[in-house]
DNA sequence: CTAATAGTGTCTATTAGACAATATCCG
DNA sequence: CGGATATTGTCTAATAGACACTATTAG
């Protein structure tokens, strides 16, 4: 019996681990592992949903837009890494990990021309909306407006603050277009039982805000859709939201006061 | 301007990549990246759904059950790795990647006591059902019967061929219990619009087989559930399945012949 | 024919979606 | 009061689920 076999099969678990640390293990080649973050926030001034993109300062994909992201560190899990990297690259602080979902790992060979890199994509429903500040890797960092798809065949696209259009299939670095598309799909298909995306609206929101927000992900929430149906579905049936007694007086020009909703604290995340 | 800055910002993309390859890049510490595979198959002899588990031959988690899996290689994506490792460890060959889903990355620190390891979990809807053969890392490798949860509060559990019970929270190595739970949840929540899991049934299947299969993931498909409702939902409305004219004559003892269904080839995967 | 099994049609409850009617506020 | 805005109630269509009834086959 080899020493190896002895420790793997005969020794106790703790003896094995003691021995294992002393071994110079034959190293497999390892990939770099990064995280990327598809960050949504709602700009109340302009009354629209925005996505946080970086403009790359350096090769590869110099001058293309990209998602904030970076390397994962030992002793942190992917979500922590996504929080940390988002802050380092954009100065945007994510308060809670339950504003984040993992979308999945993207591992297509050669997705990064520099070498073997796997990314774990996340999405974040940020609140409050804050101005970003570009870190080292970016020449710029900005909230881009999302132009929602008008029907099922179309894709959303984006517009920078100086009105430049960003198309998913042309203007993004790496496979970030695919990551963004997967994120939109995932949010849409979970809207039937989950509304975490509403976290971008902050602690309270109205049914009309929800409708407007959901429209970015699913064209069925269009002009003809009655916001009261959101109440029926998400408040009465699913009980994801609850009415909070308050009613705003006069932030609007006139009209019946809005009802405010918040997340129902009894609900848990499920994605 | 440093050389670094020149190549990152002034040179062309291909000049940059040429230069990059010659550099001895400061290495970040990298994790090992593995894949794991939650493999389902339907055993027609015993008329039940089974899950493929390995019994670990070596520390850590010696003698615990684990999912087939292993290291991802350069120049392959995660799904290819999952196919390759499944074959190496269990001799089970997965024919097509559209029998597989990615479940997600699991990256909790110290999930592997030997060191920093991130896994990308997959699930596979295998067909045909074949006998496995344990590879090196396993003392055994077997199809375990799945005992479905009877209501929403319960978890499924498993039974080995010699009737030993495997509980998710006690008998599995690493975080594989969590991976399996996440997989069951994911399949269940996508059953409203997707039925890829039916790929375990092979090219054709009956509505009763579908009902029995779905019950493993959602207790609503219980004895009182009428299989004709599956036809209404998945054939008529979603058009995921189609009737294939054939009707089996006499594989059953008596009774009206079954209608056979297959996947509708116009449909694409969407998860 | 009878037992066994599968499929059909129908009925009810729930859910989704649209729209008319009503409520509230501002000036 | 009248215009603006929001919510409520109701109506219809779509969907989910249950169950009685009918169809087919073996023996």
UniProtKB/TrEMBL annotation, chains A, B:
Residues 32-173 form the Nudix hydrolase domain. The keyword Hydrolase applies. Keywords: Hydrolase. PROSITE patterns: NUDIX (PS51462), NUDIX_BOX (PS00893). GO terms for molecular function: hydrolase activity. Transmembrane segments: none annotated. Belongs to the Nudix hydrolase family. This is NUDIX domain-containing protein. It comes from Lactococcus hircilactis.
């Amino acid at each position: 019996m080899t020493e190896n076999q002895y420790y793997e099969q005969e020794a106790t678990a703790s003896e094995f681990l003691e021995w294992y640390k002393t071994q110079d293990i034959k190293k497999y080649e390892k990939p770099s592992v990064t995280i990327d973050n598809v960050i949504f926030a709602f700009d109340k001034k302009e009354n629209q949903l925005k996505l946080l993109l970086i403009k790359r300062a350096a090769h590869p994909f110099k001058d293309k837009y990209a998602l904030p992201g970076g390397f994962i560190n030992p002793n942190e899990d992917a979500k922590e890494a996504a929080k940390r990297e988002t802050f380092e690259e954009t100065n945007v602080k994510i308060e809670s990990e339950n504003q984040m979902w993992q979308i999945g790992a993207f591992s297509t060979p050669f997705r990064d021309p520099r070498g073997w890199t796997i990314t774990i994509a996340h999405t974040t429903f940020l609140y409050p909306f804050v101005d970003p500040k570009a870190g080292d890797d970016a020449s710029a960092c900005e909230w881009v407006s999302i132009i929602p798809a008008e029907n099922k065949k179309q894709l959303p696209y984006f517009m920078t603050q100086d009105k430049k259009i960003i198309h998913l299939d042309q203007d993004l670095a790496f496979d970030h277009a695919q990551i963004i598309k997967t994120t939109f799909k995932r949010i849409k298909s979970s809207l039937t039982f989950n509304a975490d995306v509403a976290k971008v609206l902050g602690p309270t929101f109205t049914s009309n805000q929800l409708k407007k927000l959901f429209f970015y992900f699913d064209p069925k929430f269009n002009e003809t859709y009655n916001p009261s149906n959101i109440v029926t579905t998400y408040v009465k049936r699913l009980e994801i939201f609850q009415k909070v007694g308050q009613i705003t007086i006069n932030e609007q020009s006139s009209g019946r006061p809005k009802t405010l909703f918040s997340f129902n604290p009894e609900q848990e995340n499920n994605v």
